[in-house]
Amino acid sequence: MSIGLFYLLGSVVLDIMANLSLEHSDGFRRRRWGALAVVAIMSAFALLALAVQTLDLFMAYAIWGVLSITGTALATWMVFGQRLNWISWLGISLLILAILLMRLGG
């Protein structure tokens, strides 16, 4: 496993944290949560920038996107009780399939 993959996974975790913090901020009415969201997303992109030094940009960004979307969907379900319908889960499944196809093709 390359260091770029660790940076990428760290970036995903920070992005999910940023999304949860943003939800907690209630439209930035809770400023500390809002500030945490901003710092977390800036840190996520900093790690993503480090990741693309050793990973192809298109793959890194695609993997980051699908893991962040899936992770946020799962985290908001666990933390806030928000649920996705089957069509949304189908969409996430198609995103994952697209990443696998990109990886196989390239």
Contiguous uncertain segments of 5+ residues: none
Annotation field: number of helices:
4
Number of strands: 0
Shape: flat
CA-atom Rg in angstroms:
15 Å
Percentage of β-strand residues: under 5%
Helix content: over 70%
Summarize model confidence as the mean pLDDT: 94
Cα separation of the termini: 18 Å
Q: Name the structural class.
A: mainly alpha
Order of helices and strands: HHHH
Number of structurally distinct domains? 1
The major β-sheet equals:
none
InterPro entries: EmrE-like, Small_drug/metabolite_transptr, Small_multidrug_res
Subunit structure: Forms a complex with MdtJ.
Membrane topology: Multi-pass membrane protein
Family: Belongs to the drug/metabolite transporter (DMT) superfamily. Small multidrug resistance (SMR) (TC 2.A.7.1) family.
In short:
InterPro entries: EmrE-like (IPR037185), Small_drug/metabolite_transptr (IPR000390), Small_multidrug_res (IPR045324). This protein has one domain (3-105).
